[in-house]
């Protein structure tokens, strides 16, 4: 089983999969979880709780960020946030920018649109 999302162990000297992402899921590799190859069970002491990989695909990842953007930040803070995000995202590959913009639009359409304008992004998201 290939487990490139777990690396940098003691004495790693083999190139360590180079610049491939070490997080799962990611957009660089078409890796799917296969239950028959699930990670071994681990137990925490003293409660002996069994741990498995958590599938977070159904989690609500946007409501808290939406409330923060829409109700907490003032216009000056929103502008700084957009500038900071844009300064970092402009170095990403276009397909990563598209995914990021889609996520930011899930937080707030205004945030996604303003960030897209700041990046001068014309691709359809």
Key features of this structure:
mainly alpha; extended; 125 residues; 4 helices; two-stranded antiparallel sheet
List the helices and strands and how they pair.
Elements: E1 42-44, E2 49-51, H1 63-72, H2 75-89, H3 94-107, H4 109-119
Antiparallel strand pairs: 1-2
Mean pLDDT: 80
Number of discrete helical segments: 4
Instruction: Quote the distance from N terminus to C terminus.
Output: 34 Å
Radius of gyration: 19 Å
- Biggest β-sheet strands, sense, barrel: 2 strands, antiparallel
Using the alpha-carbon principal axes, give the shape: extended
Percent of residues in helical segments? 40-55%
Give the strand tally: 2
Side-by-side strand order of the widest sheet: 1-2
Structural class designation: mainly alpha
Low-confidence stretches: none
- H-E order: EEHHHH
Beta fraction: under 5%
Report on the architecture of this protein:
The protein has four helices and two strands; from the N terminus they run ββαααα. With 125 residues, it is mainly alpha-helical. α2 (75-89) crosses α4 (109-119) and α3 runs antiparallel to α4 (109-119). It starts with 41 loop residues before the first strand and ends in a 6-residue tail after the last helix.
